[in-house]
Amino acid sequence: MSSDLSPRSRILGGLWGVAVGDALGVPVEFCSRGERDRDPVTDLRGHGTHNQPPGTWSDDTSLTLCTVETLLRAGEDYQALGQSFVRWLDEEIWTPHGRVFDVGNTTAYAIRRLSRGVDPLKAGRDDDFSNGNGSLMRILPVAIWFTGRAAPETIEAAHRFSALTHRHERSQAGCAIFCLIAQHLIAGAGAAASIDKAWKIAKAHYRVDPFASELRTYARIASAGKLKKLDQRDIRGSGYVIDALEASLWCLLKSSSFDQAVLSAVNLGDDTDTTAAITGALAGIRYGVEAIPAHWRTQLARHDDLDALFNDFVARIGSSA
Predict the structure, then answer these.
(1) What is the largest CA-CA distance in the chain?
(2) CA-only gyration radius of the chain, Å
(3) Average pLDDT for residues 235-259, to the nearest whole number?
(4) In whole angstroms, what is the distance from residue 13 CA to residue 69 CA?
């Protein structure tokens, strides 16, 4: 039963879930939902949109790995994290095959600013049109790192980590809500309860503008029960941060297994790799690492490197608890 899972299984499930979901979505990124209806993804594929071999993950996983490694080596050091992002883009560290093949415009802009020495907490754009899902897709390690701390600490940390690439309050709030949900899942709460508890905490925290107004843009996730009742046609798999969070939570609520959750995310179409990576993070925690099909994990590029990094991170979290 998922309620009996250990925190270790849940955390490893979340980390592997990001990479697996990402890899499932890479070959069909930007394809329409109609195409997915005609040819649904049911397993890892190769080639497709980016002409990559099966098991290839994208910037979603790369920047998550940069974050994991930085937390392990330097803790909450934003300069170190920013330089890790720069090295990923320029030196192609933490890429699946030694080449960056996918990066969002907002993220690339921020990393170029980081490379010029801009303060990491001021590097990301903060305009209304810079609210893609590029910080949400990499925020899981922050939720894990801050597990067990007071909710306001998690919220403010999510804001800071988001700001390196996405500094608008809408993106920051989305990352904070995600982190709160992930932490409740790690603690063993069910999907609906985790969402409702996180929303209650966020609403209490965001009492004044601009965050109070931005929280209202996420109103469709205020009730897990109502979100679950939405039809697939009401859910969008776009790269907009609100759409990405809604879609991932909807897929989680509608699933009864890890594979069902991530495949439903991929088959929404559009920004398939990121929607599935975010969904995979949450579903991996919800169902545990053992629920992720073994052949999906073993087929991932750099499987052994991922395994070593994830286990080191979990060991560090355990020793700090």
Answers:
(1) 50
(2) 17
(3) 98
(4) 17
Terminal C-alpha separation, the chain: 24
Asked if the model's pLDDT at residue 1 lies above 50, the reply is no
* Helix (H/G/I), strand (E/B), else coil: 20: helix
CB 20 within 8 A of CB 280: yes
Q: What is the pLDDT of residues 122-142, one digit of tens each?
A: 999 999 999 999 999 999 999
Contact between residue 113 and residue 123 where contact means Cβ atoms under 8 Å apart: yes
Whether the model clears a pTM of 0.90, i.e. scores above it, the answer is yes
Do the Cβ atoms of 261 and 283 come closer than 8 Å?
yes
* CA gap 260, 263 in Å, rounded: 5
CA separation for the pair 89, 85 (Å, rounded)? 6
Residue bearing tokens 């992002």: 85
Q: Are 251 and 265 in contact (CB under 8 A)?
A: yes
The token pair at 52 is: 């990559």
Q: Which of 42, 310, 21 is nearest to 137 (CA)?
A: 21
Q: For residue 88, give its domain range.
A: 2-320
Which two tokens mark 83? 């330089």
> By the 8 A CB rule, do 139 and 160 touch?
no
Q: Give me the CATH number covering residue 91.
A: 1.10.4080.10
Instruction: Please count the structural domains in the chain.
Output: 1
What gap in Å lies between CA 106 and CA 110, rounded to an integer?
6
Please answer whether residues 264 and 23 qualify as being in contact, where contact means their C-beta atoms are separated by less than 8 angstroms.
no
Instruction: Give CA angle at 19 (15, 23), nearest 5°.
Output: 165
